[in-house]
Amino acid sequence: MSSFVLCFQDIDKTKLTVVGGKGANLGELSKIEGIRVPDGFCISTEAFKRIIGETSSIDELLDQLSLLKVEDRDKIGELSGEIRRVIEEIAIPEDMNEAIARLLSRFDEKNAYAVRSSATAEDLPTASFAGQQDTYLNMIGREAILTHISKCWASLFTERAVIYRLQNGFDHRKVNMSVVVQKMVFPQVAGILFTADPVTSNRKVLSIDASFGLGEALVSGLVNPDIYKVQNGKVIDQKISTKKRAIYALKDGGTKEQEIEPERQNRQALTDEQILQLDRMGRTIEAHFGSPQDIEWCLVDDTFYVVQSRPITTLFPIPEANDQENHVYVSVGHQQMMTDPMKPLGLSLWQLTAARPMYKAGGRLFVDVAQDLASPAGREVLVNVLGKSDPLIKDALTTILERGDFIQSLPSDETEPSPGNSNKGMSPAAFQVQLENDPTIVSDLIKDSQALIETLKHDIQAKSGVDLIDFILEDRLKLRQSLSYPKSFGAIMTGMNASSWINEKMMEWLGEKNAADTLSQSAPNNITSEMGLALLDVADVIRPYPEVIEYLQHVKDDGFLDELVKFNGGQEAQDVICAYLDKYGMRCAGEIDITRTRWSEKPTSASHFSDEYKCLGLCLEDSARL
After folding, report:
1. 284, 193 in Cβ contact below 8 A?
2. In 240-292, which ranges are E strands?
3. Using an 8 Å Cβ cutoff, are 230 and 244 in contact?
């Protein structure tokens, strides 16, 4: 067989660069037992590359296109239109023409075909170019098919596709186009099946959109489809829409839009049994590809055909689990008011040092609290503690617990998990720590921590190369132990319990909400308050020097500290600011990610810190110290 054409049976996922995303997925679908795919073949990317490579004017136009940015809409429209015109006017070489003709003869040239684009940057696990290139339905005859193959090639350069590639960082020269030529089926009903609910992202709820006629009516937004929701093999919700119009195939080729008879407009497009049959097909396809799928299907008489399946790329990823148990993942970043994704090094640090396993997904860290929720004691503590920092998480946990069947609760008198049952909760003892009313505990913990840091600073200076890596790995074990030290955890829990008690009683006695949040600002060792007070100490030193105040209000360059000495009082200002940075300069916005630039590294990098400099002069003149 020619290198320019491949039948579906000869295609699998390894042929992505040869037949594009749509073609590779159709090849995979055709091999799944029980899944019917209309016959067809692909014109390979080799054909496209030959067409493009033999046309010098396209190369020049691509050079111009590569210089444009997303904002250059007018120029993008002009250049992309010119590229499409040139491609459509190129004659398909004779040997390529003959290879296509042979396969059309095998499948019967008189049949109607869908001619569909399949780019190498389309229907990928991480990006979907669905709808960016063109599809032509009900093409009859070799000439019509060849003409629309050229149109599909040209559609790689629609204005929409070009802009999408620019937004997603794809090189125009490295994206190639295959074309799918597939036998048409003429369905009574067609639609889209999502194996994860596209609205809620619930991976256990399958969602089906269905309308009469060809699926093009649904994809183009011509009709509001029926929507069916399925979970655990049961239809849990149905929305029957008024379907006024449909698209049907014409006898001599092409399609037409047609009004649906009034008596059919509000009729359910699929029976319940057909809905459940689609559910089973969807789960089979999802299992084959290993991820949630967006599937296009057609119902012809009593037979379902699948004409496409692509990954759903809009779902937020979930942490990987190596078992079939239920899991409840809570975002660590949201608890720390840090919702940005973290870089791999930042994620790795926490995974290596945290006292309990941490899981990553979407550049964020999560802890699995399913076991904690199984214990009555653990459940109460967890919901209350997490709920105080984020009410939405509390609502989510409460909703999960109200399901009843998701978390298997331990009996109230059971103190240990049953062996072998990984979904059993942690024992209540896990939440009972040593709580002592001894003010020296915190100061001792701080001293111990500072001593460890000084020792670490000294010891690490002598390490390099592999020895440095080994030293860091050994030290992280010590860090993990210190983080889970009972006395440390006890101090944390004591503070949390006190805060909870104060909030509860002040609300009960005085009607005052969150009183502890205000009171804690003046508590000893509140690092946030101490940092603010230390900045006022800086202000005290700078206040007598108006030139320094004026300069700091307009700080932009990170080298401003060196410039300070030029002003009267500049040396004093430099000394006090450097002392402040020595103590607090390791902090920054999103500081739980160690890859974030620290204030000491780039003093003007964080808007919070640079604003402190700029407003120092404004608050110096009339600030009052308590």
Report:
1. no
2. 245-249, 255-259
3. no
Instruction: Map residue 525 onto helix, strand or coil.
Output: coil
pLDDT 10s digits, 474-485: 888 877 777 677
Asked if 149 and 100 touch (Cβ cutoff 8 Å), the reply is: yes
| Model confidence at 467: pLDDT above 90 | yes
- Topology at the third CATH level for domain 185-315: D-amino Acid Aminotransferase; Chain A, domain 1 (3.30.470)
Choose from 156-160, 270-274, 422-426, 548-552 the range with maximum mean pLDDT: 270-274
Where along the chain do its domains lie? 1-183, 185-315, 329-412+422-427, 440-519, 526-620
Cβ pair 514, 503 in contact under 8 A: yes
Conformational region of residue 111, where left means phi above 0, alpha means psi within -120 to 50, and beta covers everything else: beta
| DSSP code for 355 | S
Residue 190 near residue 214 (C-beta atoms within 8 A): yes
Tokens of 548: 């320094």
The CA-based angle 517-381-327, given to 5 degrees, is: 120
What token pair was written down for 573? 């200002």
Paired strand residues for 115: 136, 181
**pTM score, whole prediction:** 0.69
Q: Which segments of 354-390 does DSSP mark as H helices, in order?
A: 370-374, 376-389
In whole angstroms, what separates CA 54 from the centre of its chain? 40
Q: CA–CA separation, 533 vs 77, rounded Å?
A: 57
Extract the tokens encoding 580: 């402040």
- pLDDT interval class at 421 (50, 70, 90): very low
Nearest CA among 561, 597, 556 for reference residue 576: 561
Contact between 229 and 210 under an 8 Å Cβ cutoff? The reply is: no
Burial of residue 235, with CB atoms counted within 10 A of its CB: 0-12 exposed, 13-18 middle, 19 or more buried? middle
Average of per-residue pLDDT values in the chain: 86
500 confidence band (pLDDT: 50, 70, 90):
confident
Quick: pLDDT tens for 27-79.
Answer: 999 999 999 999 999 999 999 999 988 888 888 898 899 888 888 999 999 99
Task: Assess contact for 338 and 331: CB atoms under 8 A.
Answer: no
pLDDT at 612: 54
1-183 belongs to CATH 3.90.79.10: no
Are 102 and 158 in contact, with CB atoms under 8 Å apart? Answer: no
Q: What is the pLDDT of residue 30?
A: 96
Q: What's the pLDDT score for residue 626?
A: 42
Is 387 within 8 Å of 353 (Cβ atoms)?
A: no
Our measurement of the distance from residue 411's CA atom to the centroid of its chain's CA atoms, rounded to an integer in Å, reads: 38
CB atoms within 10 A of CB 200: 10
300 confidence band (pLDDT: 50, 70, 90): very high
Cβ atoms 116, 182 nearer than 8 A = yes
| Structure tokens that stand for 16 in this block | 């992505």
Rg (CA), the chain: 32
In 3D space, the residue among 194, 183, 201, 202 whose CA is nearest the CA of residue 225 turns out to be 194
